[in-house]
Please model this.
Amino acid sequence: MANAKLDYKKEYKDLYMPKTKPSIVEVPPIRFVMVDGKGNPNDKGGEYQQAVELLYALTYTIKMSKMGANKPDGYFEYVVPPLEGLWWLNDNSHFDFTIKEKFCWTSMIRQPEFVTQKVFDWACKEVAKKKPQLDTSKARLQSYHEGLCVQMMHIGSYDDEPETTAQIDAFMKENNLQNAIDEVQSDGMVKRHHEIYLGDPRKIEPSKRKTVLRHPVKRCNRSIKCMLLLVL
Model:
């Protein structure tokens, strides 16, 4: 078992394999390669698809760094974690899944703990040499700490996600939790509607797609002000 690959989905099932009903989870700080953008993710050759291509190019360059002289200190074998995304609208209105042209997003892939800024910078240089059409300046390595969240496995089309988020909202009210979406953290990162994509959507029919939906929350004191927030 010494040579077994670390599979984050299996090692951290509480983060990647929730049940098809809402549950509370405490999410620790996690290091990601991130790319920000705007627009409809379904546009062929659009900004989102370019961002995903860049993310995977960097991620697999880091994974294969074991093959050369630049093997990172502390390198271990691992399975590439799934693609994830933070989503919001460019006018900061209530998130509406139907207005895709107004989407803002941060597309991201988790990185192993040995990935430092030095390792990331090296990967950017390698990708720039091998795939000059990709703009590596759009990517960054950053830790993201969501903390307390409510999440649930959504099975089906992305367009049907409102049915699942409605269950998350109902669970929050029942458990005295306040939505923390749009809360700005000390490092400038903003908590958002979060999606984790399990499997390749190009190879899975929409009705069978599995997506973890996660909303950051905070515990609410039983005050009049808080009860009003839960009702709204």
In short: DSSP finds six helices and nine strands in the chain. Helices lie at 8-11, 13-16, 47-63, 117-130, 161-174, 224-231. Residues 47-63 form the longest helix (17 residues). The radius of gyration is 18 Å.
